[in-house]
Structures are given as structure tokens and as C-alpha cells.
Amino acid sequence: MLKFIIKLFGPGVNYRDLIAKGAIIIDVRTTQEFDNGHIKGSKNIPLNKIQTEVNKIKSWNKPIITICQSGGRSSMAKSTLHKAGIEVYNGGGWINLKSKL
């Protein structure tokens, strides 16, 4: 179980460094969830729209950090973006990531 958690959330990833290098945070929660609170500067692309936005995201040519409420949806988004050849990290829940920044 611990190995699964480590793989899912990528310990050792320095999110501050990624942001400093231009990484973009994509919050994959619904628009309503996003409007109720989010990380300043993050982009809201709900999980159900990630697949249709892959080319746009890829064109940014930046590392991506996916976030959601608890880490489940951001993991699915990470998988979709990774399969498209995008450098992507699962930041897990947005409140948790916000506390690390």
C-alpha cells in the first residue's frame, strides 16, 4: 500500500521548484468546486474536458501539475496527459499542495 501511495503522489517532487521553472497547475475539479476555492494562478480544466484539451495543454510546452479535491481525479488526468507525452505530476489535493507552496 505504501508503495502505491508513493507512486501516486510522487514524494520527493519539489513543487516549488517546478512552479519556479514554469510549471502550470491544472485543477481538474468542476467549475463550481474551483470557484469555491483554488490555488492562485491555477487553470481550471475539469477532468471530463482534459482529453479534448490535450493538444492545447501540450502546446504550452511546460510541465503540468494536476490537482483536484483529494488526488483521485488528478491521478486520472495525469495518466491521460502522460500518455500524450506531456511532463506531468500529480499534486494530489489542492489544499495539500497549496500548503506546500
Structural class label: alpha/beta
For the largest sheet, list the strands in their spatial order. 2-1-3-4
* Percent in strands: 15-25%
Percent range of helical residues = 40-55%
Task: Find the count of extended strands (DSSP E, 2+ residues).
Answer: 4
Largest sheet: 4 strands, parallel
Report the radius of gyration as a whole number of Å. Answer: 12 Å
Poorly predicted runs are 1-10
| Mean pLDDT figure | 89
Q: What does the overall shape look like?
A: globular
Q: Report the total helices.
A: 6
Distance between the termini: 27 Å
How would you spell out the order of helices and strands?
A: HHEHEHEHEH
Written account of the structure:
The protein is an alpha/beta fold and 101 residues long. The protein has a domain at 27-37 and 47-101. Helices cover 50% and strands 17% of the residues. The protein has 6 helices and 4 strands, in the order H-H-E-H-E-H-E-H-E-H. It has helices at 2-9, 15-20, 31-35, 47-59, 72-83, 94-100, and strands at 24-27, 43-44, 64-68, 88-93. It has a 4-stranded parallel beta sheet. Helix 4 (47-59) packs across helix 5 (72-83). It is globular, with a radius of gyration of 12 Å. Mean pLDDT is 89; it is low at 1-10.
